[in-house]
Amino acid sequence: MQRTSWEKWNGHNGSIFWLTGLSGSGKTTLACGAESELLRRGVRCVIIDGDRLRQGLNRDLGFTEEARLENMRRAMEIADMFLEKGFVVLVPMISPYESYRKQIKQRFGPEDFAEVYVKCSLEECEQRDPKGLYRKARAGEIKDFTGIDSPYETPIQPNMIIDTEKYGEADAINALVAYIESRLNNI
């Protein structure tokens, strides 16, 4: 079946929403909350979580720049498969390099792809540290950790910014859902 047929069957067009930000900024929390609300509203969606990919499909990859790019490439290919089936695809992934995020945007085009910057300061992410990763990175137990000894390049022109230091979880999720729905065309 062609994508347009899938979208007609789904009742909406497909689109990719790539959530980028530091570890602990709230990317996965926002994606899970949005997924739950969108499914409740009848929107067919899926999450391709960077952490889950690292535990399974991408467990063979390290954290060098080359490995990070391959991690993103694989996520992009999976997202594309779901897009072709007319899904809303949520990709919470650190995605530290602006140049590669730009390449992904260009591959899909503005009608199929939106970059969502989940903004949160390094200091706040370190304070939250839900997985204890910053503590380990500061102790030298984790090398090449984004924000500590590996760069995170802030998005230059994201489609949306959600500042999780300013907005509570519910408000941030509602903002993301509203943005996603504004980009969907009912078919």
Could you explain how this protein is built, in words?
The chain is α/β, with parallel strands linked by helices and 187 residues long. The protein has one domain (3-180): P-loop containing nucleotide triphosphate hydrolases (Rossmann fold). Helix content is 46%, strand content 13%. It has eight helices and five strands. It has a five-stranded parallel beta sheet with strand order 2-3-1-4-5, sandwiched between helices. Helix 2 crosses helix 8 (169-183). The longest helix has 19 residues, at 65-83.
List the SSEs and their pairings.
Blueprint: H1 3-10, E1 15-20, H2 27-40, E2 45-47, H3 50-55, H4 65-83, E3 88-92, H5 98-108, E4 113-119, H6 122-128, H7 133-138, E5 160-163, H8 169-183
Helix pairs in contact: 2-8
Helix/strand/pairing category: alpha/beta
Summarize model confidence as the mean pLDDT: 91
Count, helices: 8
Number of strands: 5
Helix content range: 40-55%
Q: Order of strands across the widest beta sheet? A: 2-3-1-4-5
Keywords:
single chain; 187 residues; alpha/beta; Rossmann fold; 5-stranded parallel beta sheet; 46% helix
Structure in a nutshell:
The chain is an alpha/beta fold.
